Amino acid sequence: MAIEYLGLSEINGPLVVLEGVKNAANEEIVEFLMDDGTQKIGRIIELYEDKAVIQVFEGTDNMSLYNTHTRLTGHPMELGLSPEILGRTFNGIGQPIDGLGDINPEMKVNINGLPLNPVSREYPRNYINTGFSAIDGLTTLIRGQKLPIFSGNGLPHDKLAAQIVRQASLGAAGEDNFAIVFAAMGVKYDVAEFFRREFEESGASEHVVMFLNLANDPVVERLLTPKLALTAAEYLAFEKGMNILVILTDITSFCEAMREVSSSKGEIPSRKGYPGYLYSELATLYERAGIVAGGTGSVTQIPILTMPNDDITHPIPDLTGYITEGQIVLERSLHGQGVYPPINVLPSLSRLMKDGIGEGFTREDHQDVANQLFSCYAKVGDARALASVIGEDELSPSDKRYLAFGRAFEAEFVGQKESENRDIMETLEKGWNLLGLLPREELDRINTKILDKYYKETGR
């Protein structure tokens, strides 16, 4: 039974305190009715004796200490779900904003889902094709994996995210069973419009569920947006048997919102002012990816985060790296050279890649080609460092070939057009063409049988 109270004890930023509360629960949804007839909702985030601290989603403007009616609903935040959510756009608290009316839910689900039980997980095997050679060839995304993109302010991660949505597929088969859940947190209006327009013009919007939290929306809504997106993804994956790719941008906005709310609550800050539970909050989000044994669906995550000052040791990328299975790192110097996408392949890795590629998944030579490209590109760095000291003309013939390989690798393998969607076979062929720039005896990471079958010296 819902209980109603009159008046508030305290208002502090996005938080209000209600005294004399009975039978309340953490995460319970609260409804407020103001004097002027307007309504707001919030959720209980802390209970102490008979006091409840409540986050107000729409902010505390126009709220009065004396005349605000507060009603406890008796249930947590829930999202109404049905197959109708495909192709729809919602705001940061799950309300439709595309003008197509409300969803007729077949079920309502608590958005505070739990991480998948390790015992019920199935090991990820099959790959997801993104159309980018640097990802598919060298840091392959595996179905059920969580693979973040580490970016920086001003780098084209929004463009990259939109292109992944347009191009992502399950490879050879299963297209009808594939959909994308896209959540944007704290983005500007023009960025939100860019995503909406890109998806509509490409025809991708039909298999995309969008959750948009704008920069001028209340900051506490940012804490709900990824939970709503993951709840929708889990429903489509585990109830409807679909393979879902979840793209969350920008996780840094989510963490900044957490820091702001934590500060309002008067909590003791940890590293860089973030709350001490930053790790557990991120883990709760990321660990909702995976495959349930015996089921047909999967949830794969690509969280995107902007590293403050391009600092990969900052708490957000640092903790994210502990939880996830690898990372894709965008490089500012490559962006300055006009390379798109500016992926620095050396610090990028996919820890689950080895089990989802090769014969039966992609092609028998995939792992060997990836190993050799990594090895050769690492030697390019050594050659460039030497050239900066003694000059390129003084380099040995071998070092000059590595410099040529490095330029071609960045321009033709990592770099590609914004409309270019490469399949895995095209990516592997490009890899072999680049390896052909080097003499056969330099290719020491490839099995001899595979080398005999695929290697051809190009010698440009």
How would you describe this structure to a colleague?
With 460 residues, the chain is of the alpha/beta class. It has twelve helices and 19 strands. The chain has helices at residues 133-136, 157-167, 189-202, 225-239, 251-264, 278-286, 315-323, 332-336, 366-390, 397-414, 424-435, 448-454, and strands spanning 3-6, 10-12, 15-18, 28-33, 39-48, 51-56, 69-76, 78-81, 89-91, 107-110, 127-128, 141-142, 149-151, 178-187, 208-214, 243-249, 298-306, 326-330, 343-350. The strands form four sheets. It has an eight-stranded mixed sheet with strand order 9-15-14-16-17-13-18-19, with helices on both faces. It has a seven-stranded antiparallel sheet with strand order 1-7-4-5-6-3-2, with no helix packed on it. Strands 8-10 form a two-stranded antiparallel ribbon. Helix 9 (366-390) packs across helix 10 (397-414), helix 9 (366-390) packs across helix 11 and helix 10 packs antiparallel against helix 11 (424-435). The longest helix is centred in the C-terminal third of the chain and has 25 residues, at 366-390. It is elongated. The termini are far apart. 43% of the residues are buried. The model has no long low-confidence stretch (mean pLDDT 90).
Largest sheet: 8 strands, mixed
Query: What's the total number of strands?
Result: 19
Tally the helices: 12
Which band does the percent of strand residues land in? 15-25%
Shape: elongated
Percent in helix: 25-40%
Please state how the strands of the largest beta sheet are arranged side by side. Answer: 9-15-14-16-17-13-18-19
- Terminal CA distance reads 77 Å
